Amino acid sequence: xxxxxxxxxxxxxxxxxxxxxxxxxxxxxxxxxxxxxxxxxxxxxxxxxxxxxxxxxxxxxxxxxxxxxxxxxxxxxxxxxxxxxxxxxxxxxxxxxxxxxxxxxxxxxxxxxxxxxxxxxxxxxxxxxxxxxxxxxxxxxxxxxxxxxxxxxxxxxxxxxxxxxxxxxxxxxxxxxxxxxxxxxxxxxxxxxxxxxxxxxxxxxxxxxxxxxxxxxxxxxxxxxxxxxxxxxxxxxxxxxxxxxxxxxxxxxxxxxxxxxxxxxxxxxxxxxxxxxxxxxxxxxxxxxxxxxxxxxxxxxxxxxxxxxxxxxxxxxxxxxxxxxxxxxxx
Length: 331
Fold this sequence. Notes:
alpha/beta; 12 strands; 11 helices; about 20% strand; two-stranded antiparallel ribbon; 8-stranded parallel β-barrel
């Protein structure tokens, strides 16, 4: 008998390429999918009117006055973006970041304006003090060290003021111990039990934040943030941070940055099965922009590949400065 004729389906080589032969076939069996409603657009809100000032290190990203912020949100909504994350650029700064809870500050004003113009858009607000302190650190300083509990008190005030303005989710990004529980308690006691908390649960002390600090004017005047943001070498510690924030009442947990920490995203999602966000941060965005400007890569392909990798790792949604570009690319 001819040995070739004796082969069965079990012994024939598998032709895995059969499922890659056309775009229709590839789309049919695709495991990970992107959609505009899985993106959150970060926006930097500043004082004034008619302000649209491009950030030098982040092409296509702007500091926006409240009126321009509303226009940006309206345009993004037409492209399928349904969620935004607001950062504030206050008109004044002091040692304790008191502008963070000024009801007329840029973030609070923008929340109210967005909710009037685009009531169906989900509005998230960053809760931290680094944009609001004159020293640029994320909290209240005592003898040049960030004091955890006094900082939490200020964060609570900021979070409650955002909720009062109409924010759907407040997002503490400071990495102080106990801040999620304190914010949850204050929100509930203030009648804002429907306001959710998206915790920056595993936020690493990363070199990829540089362009953000350019955009937000939040460079520390001395030292660094290694005493509260996580050591990039640690993975198991991230699980402890996430577990604690869930126990304190976080509704969503986040890993930041995204691409250098895909393993952490996967471990968090696998361990907890909790709604998980990833922040595709300013440095990740700026690197792709710079490489594309030099003709070193195809920006559209690199953008979509990067975002797909983050989703594939386990992120339910992605905060990214590419949100609008990616949404248009997916049309």
